[in-house]
Design goal:
By secondary structure, this protein is mainly alpha-helical. Helix content is about 90%, strand content about 0%.
C-alpha cells in the first residue's frame, strides 16, 4: 500500500489531527509564526477590552486566520523547496521570496485593517 492509499483510508479525525500537528510544528519552529500568534493574542485581548462591533470582530478574525494560513503555506513552500534542493538555485530563492512576499502583502493589509478599526477607539480615549 503506498502513501496515497493510506491517506485515502485515514479517518476525518486523523486528517484533522495531522492539520493540528502541522500548525503546532510551525508554531514551535517558525519565529514569524510565533510572532503572529502573540500579536493575534494581543489584538484579540484589545478587541475584547474595547468592545469592537460584531462586524469588526469578523474582519479581525479573518485577518488573523488569513495571516496564519499564509504563514503555513509559506512554511510549506520553504520546506518543499529545501526538500528538493539543498544547493542554491535562483528559482528556489524566487519561490521562497515570492511566498514570503505574499505574507508581507497580507501583513501590510492586516496592519491597515487594524489601524482603521482601532484608531477611532483610541481617539475616543
Amino acid at each position: 500500500m503506498d502513501s496515497n492509499d493510506k491517506r485515502s483510508q485515514q479517518s476525518w479525525l486523523g486528517t484533522f489531527s495531522n492539520a493540528i500537528a502541522g500548525i503546532l510544528v510551525a508554531l514551535k519552529s517558525e519565529k514569524n509564526m510565533r510572532f503572529h500568534f502573540f500579536c493575534s493574542i494581543l489584538v484579540v485581548l484589545v478587541s475584547y477590552y474595547i468592545s469592537i462591533t460584531k462586524t469588526e470582530w469578523i474582519i479581525i478574525l479573518f485577518a488573523i486566520a488569513g495571516m496564519f494560513a499564509l504563514e503555513l503555506v509559506n512554511t510549506a513552500i520553504e520546506r518543499v523547496v529545501d526538500l528538493v534542493t539543498q544547493e542554491y538555485h535562483p528559482l528556489a530563492k524566487q519561490a521562497k521570496d515570492m511566498a514570503a512576499g505574499a505574507v508581507l502583502v497580507y501583513t501590510v493589509l492586516s496592519v491597515v485593517i487594524g489601524l482603521l478599526i482601532f484608531l477611532p477607539y483610541i481617539q475616543k480615549l
